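Notes to self after the call with IL:
- keep both proteins in one doc
- input above output, always
- annotate only the second one for now

Protein 1:
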Amino acid sequence: MEPIISIKGLGKTYAGGFTALQNIDLEIQRGEIFALLGPNGAGKTTLISIVCGIVNPSQGNVTVSGFDIQRDYRSARRAIGLVPQEISTDSFESVWGAVKFSRGLFGKPPNPAYLEKILRQLSLWEKKDNKIITLSGGMKRRLMIAKALSHEPSVLFLDEPTAGVDVELRQDMWEMVRGLRDSGVTVILTTHYIEEAEEMADRVGVINRGELVLVEDKKNLMQKMGEKELSLQLPEPLQKIPDSLADLPLRLNGDGSQLIYRFDIKSENTGIAEFLRRLNSANIEFRDLHTRESSLEEIFVNLVHGARREHEKQLSGETQE
């Protein structure tokens, strides 16, 4: 099946010489939720801005629904709904007037029933006649989403969509996103709430210093790169790890009441059996145990730090040469 978004060899270097993106290759499938993760300044917003036709690329090609974003800008843009990070609205327009105007910008015929549905889903219907200037920050954020959805796009970009939105409304918004995905809308999001990406995304892309570090199915990523911890609850706290166990990947929690063994879930031999045998030989008893997998946030931090170390190593090599 042809991807709904195809990005090939994409790069962006600004006039001052700063390279924001380099050699990005990415395909996004129709009807998936794709989470783009990366630290501030990594290139997430630049990538979204290029796909949406706001920023011109220095090199490479991008198509959306089969339309080239430069040769067929209008057709490509009509397929896209964009919720930017910055809230930008006409403060003295009404909520209803704003979403109605946004729909008309894309040449769509009036559809009051559809606009009402969107506003109700975003808990804005009761505010439809209010001027935007009277809305709270969270309501303005939800209005931005309503405007992006007003012309019924097949692709929705959410750039930090839940910033400033309270927890309850955030859950309502994600419920709506799930519904959009189920109806066939492709959702691409950037977020600092990594637990949301872990809960929502079908696939995850990690970008750092303008390079796409990896793209992976979320479940596969956690299986391939995650680690597990075996945590043993001790009947009596330990002051330190015994010397006889010092060569093992062990640590004590703060008060010494838990002994934690970390192992690689990719390995055929986790070493747990040997660990428990040696624990018994050291006369260390435990009264309970449980396992915990690494979170997506831990994996993300490790990936970014690894990429940074590799970048610094390359710079060091260039300097020595």
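Protein 2 (the one to annotate):
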Amino acid sequence: MSTSPQLTSTGLTQGVWNLDPSHSEVGFTVRHAGISKVRGKFTDIVATATVGETAADSSVTATIQAASFDSGDANRDGHVRGADFFDVEQFPELSFASTSIAGSGDDYELSGDLTIRGITKPVTFETEFNGVAVDPFGATRAGFSGKTSISRKDFGLTWNAALEAGGVLVGDKVTITLEVAFVRA
């Protein structure tokens, strides 16, 4: 008998749920020149949530095409896709595989292994369950929001440029945000 709360009370049914990429966003924020923040997103994502009886029995996997990096500036995007950052030719994918999901109600911690540039590190997303709804076409959808921060240096993303006034061009801390919708398979 499991001591973790059952997910059926949330409206999530057991089974496989697939990411709806047209209603989802994996975004990021990083400090630029020490004075502003650059935001962007990845546009090519595949993810699956397998819902078990409890959160502890559930899992999430995701694969992101590194070349889908989009910050809204073509020159910056080309630089970040290149060898100084993601090196998409050698490391075409970023991935996440959960190792645990804990919580109840609307608040969960989604922990797992994040791989960027072939380097895998543990991360934990503070995650909010936004509910379940049936859309006008009969599809059952579940929504989640999440957030975590990583050190880009931990993943081999070390390129930087010194600023004349001191400091560096690109901050080390990257905040990753999730606004995702899954559809019951």
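Annotation: The chain has a mean pLDDT of 88. The CA atoms of residues 67 and 88 lie 6 Å apart.
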